[in-house]
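Appendix B. Raw example, untouched.
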Amino acid sequence: MGDRGASGLAISYRNVASGALVLAGLPLALKRLLALIGLLLSGQAVAALELVDDRGVRFQLTAPPQRIVSVLPSLTEMVCALGQCQRLVGVDRYSNYPDSVRALP
């Protein structure tokens, strides 16, 4: 099964025996971002998570985020697909799915 995303990249996916979703054709940075979002929103107790941004600045997250502002429609959809729509407190002007995010500032 496959799909062509808005960026024009061919995205292949399939369910494997473990129930995991396998994505092919996505840039490594996007795969890492998806993994990070999943980890942060999982709600599981995790030790402090240290991240380094593109400028080399290090910062720590000591707990999963409680309030999320999404600046991309695709990220808004990912947060909701992970079952964490209730944590969204703001979205960009183009986010319109699921319908519940239209009411957010």
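End of appendix B.
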